[in-house]
Backbone:
């Protein structure tokens, strides 16, 4: 009798769960069917410099107070549209609202003509030309530089080789030590023959990179994501955000072949930032040469870049260099676009650029 009662109870719960799921799915379908075509509203700015596929975008400051220009260097992987995803999810617009004069690097879409572009070109040529362009336009002697993920590695390299040109430095979800425990992406790169892939394709396909990232969290980014799809789309606002995120995730440029090989070999496999094997134009990148005050922001739940990898920056620089860090209870992307964290990031960046310390809050 008791066994029958348990079966009836479980069947009732299952039936209720299925009905709830059907209602959620029906609502999601209805919301999507009534949603107008998404307007491509991101990265609307003046193009002030073009070099090959690279564009430098200028987001004019909203205030009148003259402030040093801020150059934002995103990764070669994926697109910088994530920084200006939607009006209410835009790190760029939030910084602009604070009166910042922002220059964002859009690396573009490399094709086979770009397969021989390497790190010397990206850091020693493009980034150097970008800084010079901004200095010429603004008449400042130094720039503020913010690097995100791989862009943070580029920013650190540039600041170490050109310490006199960088006033303040911000690194966001940036890997530094590739030998730390639990750095799955680094382990995967070490076991992958990047040269063979580049030899076959010319460049490293963006689709291949997406497969690697999905493999890091196969359940969460696969089955669980699909099962919870209807819950992610509850109204037009959530539907638009979901679609914009999916569009960004699948908008993956190829990596220029030579740069992909060099980054894999010198940075990941050689742990180049810490072991001195990372070179730009035959010059070794030495993090102890950085003189700019540093704000290092990272996510404590980041599955792509372990917190320990980012935190190793503190021990790699000169002890005299001013250093602050901001750990956030978020993952790789949530650290700078989630409602929970974005305000803290903006406030910390503002205080850092203005020369003030900030208090960490839970």
Residues:
């Amino acid at each position: 009798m008791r066994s029958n009662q348990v079966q009836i109870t479980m069947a009732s719960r299952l039936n209720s769960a299925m009905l709830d799921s059907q209602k959620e799915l029906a609502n999601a379908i209805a919301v999507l069917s009534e949603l107008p075509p998404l307007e491509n509203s991101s990265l609307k700015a003046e193009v002030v410099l073009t070099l090959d596929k690279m564009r430098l975008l200028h987001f004019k400051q909203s205030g009148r107070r003259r402030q040093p220009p801020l150059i934002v260097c995103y990764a070669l992987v994926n697109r910088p549209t994530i920084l200006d995803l939607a009006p209410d999810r835009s790190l760029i617009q939030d910084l602009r609202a604070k009166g910042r004069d922002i220059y964002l690097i859009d690396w573009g879409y490399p094709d086979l003509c770009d397969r021989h572009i390497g790190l010397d070109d990206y850091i020693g040529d493009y980034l150097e030309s970008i800084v010079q362009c901004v200095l010429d336009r603004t008449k400042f002697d130094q720039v503020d530089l913010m690097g995100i993920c791989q862009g943070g590695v580029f920013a650190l390299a540039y600041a170490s080789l050109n310490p006199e040109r960088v006033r303040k430095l911000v690194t966001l979800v940036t890997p530094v030590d590739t030998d730390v425990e639990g750095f799955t992406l680094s382990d995967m790169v070490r076991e992958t023959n990047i040269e063979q892939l580049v030899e076959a394709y010319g460049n490293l396909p963006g689709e291949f990179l997406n497969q690697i990232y999905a493999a890091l969290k196969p359940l969460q980014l696969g089955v669980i994501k699909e099962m919870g799809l209807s819950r992610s789309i509850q109204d037009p606002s959530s539907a638009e955000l979901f679609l914009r995120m999916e569009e960004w995730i699948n908008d993956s440029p190829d990596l220029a072949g030579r740069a992909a090989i060099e980054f894999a070999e010198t940075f990941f496999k050689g742990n180049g930032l810490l072991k001195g094997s990372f070179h730009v134009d035959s010059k070794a990148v030495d993090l102890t040469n950085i003189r700019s005050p540093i704000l290092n922001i990272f996510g404590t739940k980041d599955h792509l870049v372990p917190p320990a990898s980012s935190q190793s920056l503190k021990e790699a620089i000169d002890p005299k260099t001013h250093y602050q860090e901001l750990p956030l209870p978020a993952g790789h992307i949530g650290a700078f676009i989630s409602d929970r964290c974005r305000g803290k990031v903006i406030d910390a960046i503002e205080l850092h650029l203005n020369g003030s310390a900030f208090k960490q809050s839970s």
About this structure: The chain has one domain: 46-353.
